[in-house]
Amino acid sequence: MEIKQKLFRMTTIPLSLNLLLQGQLRFLNQYYQVTAIADGNDLKSWEAVIEREKVQTKKIPMKRDISIFSDIKSLGLLYLFFLKEKPYIVHTNTPKASLLGMIAAFMAGVPHRIYTVTGLRFEGEKGLKRKLLITMEKITCLTATKVIPEGNGVKQTIKKNKITKKPLNVIGNGNINGIDPDLFNPEVISPEDRAKLKEDLNIYAEDFVYVFVGRLVSNKGISELVKAFTQINTGYQHVKLLLIGPFEKELDPLDDVTMSTIEENRNIILTGFQSDIRPYLAISDVFVFPSYREGFPNVVMQAGAMGLPSVVTDINGCNEIITDQLNGLVIPPRNVNSLKERMEMYLTDKSTLQKHQSEARSRIVSRFSQKDVWNSLLNEYKALD
């Protein structure tokens, strides 16, 4: 029996393994001996990964924010683990895991060190913090043997900021995991389930529903979204805004005015984190994602596969998934007026809404099929020396 080479896949937190790499680890485990690595907290996410992916796991303490002593400890633990296990490939995603993982793999002499660059944290930052984050990216790329930008926008940003001179090739049309068109399909949510969910959320038949999915933080454009929706709600009573995701009060909290508006407006509906967002997308009319920076956001693809047109900002990833006036609308970031106008356009212009709805799913399925993404990544691995 042929012994499989060891492949270590690594993110900072297990939630990223669970959501961003869903199904991929199990697929790759057919060809390699896969070990999933992330922080030891969030046992619920770990249980989901273990049950679904059927791969080996290793819990290494890691913090998402900068913490010198904690980071040094994590680096040491990773180094010792790599030195002992001697993996053939260490492949990292998410910023902190990538920085520590690439350095530790370099120190341990791992032959293939792959860094997939997703969101670049220095975008939108200024001064010393921006310089520090750029330096961290440069170190991560320097210690990697292969750098894969998640999309063409990320690729151009890396080049513009002179992060690395290594060759940069996007896999397929971009994204790290693609979309399962059978899973994200509006037909899988029955009319009865839709009606029940609407009833539970106090959404009425005549309501027009906007939906956002993601962390409820400042850099996702939540303040602008709440302001734009509030202005629309002043003129139109039968509108709802679904906010699906958790708050993060430590890393990037919302301002007090935005929080108060969310709490006081009965037409803004909070659901918290949802492990299955499909029912919520199925009862919505338009997906809205006014983020300041992204790599290649899965939720925009997921919404499209569920048949929703999107209003997104003109940033990396979003402008590669959404073509303006085809399967959605693209606006400048941090612009409440543009956001309000485009959201309201879908509310009042039914012909444009229907036209973009008709393109939404086919556009995603034809370009980001999950099996194509997985096989393209597998070919990247097989091409290694």
What does this structure look like?
The protein has a six-stranded parallel sheet. It has helices at 14-20, 24-28, 43-53, 68-85, 95-107, 127-143, 152-160, 191-200, 222-235, 256-264, 278-282, 298-305, 318-321, 336-348, 350-367, 370-382, and strands spanning 6-10, 33-38, 56-59, 89-92, 112-117, 146-149, 208-213, 239-244, 268-272, 286-289, 310-313, 328-331. The chain is 45% helix and 15% strand. It is of the alpha/beta class. The model has no long low-confidence stretch (mean pLDDT 94). The longest helix has 18 residues, at 68-85.
Alpha-carbon distance between the termini? 22 Å
Question: Largest sheet, described in full?
Answer: 6 strands, parallel
Report the sheet-strand fraction: 15-25%
Radius of gyration: 21 Å
For the biggest β-sheet, the strand order reads 3-2-1-4-5-6
Low-confidence stretches: none
What structural category arises from helix and sheet content? alpha/beta
Total strand segments: 12
Q: Based on CA inertia axes, which overall geometry fits? A: globular
Which percent range fits the helix content?
A: 40-55%
Mean pLDDT over all positions:
94
Order of SSEs, N→C?
EHHEHEHEHEHEHHEHEHEHEHEHEHHH
Q: Helical region count?
A: 16
